[in-house]
Amino acid sequence: MTEAREPAGPHARRLPGTPCWVSLMVHGLEATEEFYGELFGWEFRPGPQQLGPYVRALLDGREVAGVGRLPTDRRLPVAWTPYLASDDADRTADTVRLCGGTVAVGPLDAAEAGRMAIAADPSGAVFGIWEGVAHPGTALTGVPGTPVWNELLTFETESVRKFYKSVFPYEEEPVVSAGDDCLTLRLDGRPVAGLHGVGHGLPPDRGPHWRTYFEVADLDATLRRVAELGGRVLAPAYDGPHGRVATVADPEGAEFSVIQGPR
């Protein structure tokens, strides 16, 4: 978690490795639009259809996230996936493979928006690669309803940090906390993502995975609304160094965290 929130203009260049987009794949696209529309105030418009039906979520007319429909013939997890910026998606995908990761989809063109791939690190955590052209990524940050942070939950950080630092030009900053296995990834001295080793605390049915945090104005009201809309509160709210945080799931089970910054 970090207090650094750099507003991203619609044409801003993202340094390679910067989390620049988040996307969710679900079975019921319309029901998911209704849930997040009510929860975050998002509106939706069609996006690239290379992988099937897909919409972009907008807040105040600016794109903040994507939601797509899972193929009916494939058993894939319903989960939020962060996309990491790349200057060359094909070269980044090759580096992922060389460093022990896998590439499941692409690289392929997403219409005029850019070029993308879906990959996994050596522990199996899935992330996207995005080479933005007409669509650099999230166009609004730092306000309620926008993604504010991404954190990898994994067994231990030592092995995966080498992978991510080999694929992207990350610097690392250990988080000083007794008993915690945490690292902050930085680009140009700015914190952009976190790695958190939780050992056997990983859910056996999930394994290592990335988690996206969304900013909210009122955490308690958000948790009540999640329940009213058919979602679940998975972990109660707690006070962290950057605000109050809770972990929830939408009606299809996609997990994410919500954070209310300090007042």
Automatic annotation (TrEMBL):
Gene3D superfamilies: 2,3-Dihydroxybiphenyl 1,2-Dioxygenase, domain 1. CDD domains: SgaA_N_like (cd07247). Residues 18-132, 146-261 form the VOC domain. It comes from the Bacteria. This is VOC family protein. SUPFAM superfamilies: Glyoxalase/Bleomycin resistance protein/Dihydroxybiphenyl dioxygenase. InterPro entries: Anthracycline_SecMetBiosynth (IPR052164), Glyas_Bleomycin-R_OHBP_Dase (IPR029068), Glyoxalase_6 (IPR041581), VOC_core (IPR037523). It comes from Streptomyces lavenduligriseus. Coiled coil: none annotated.
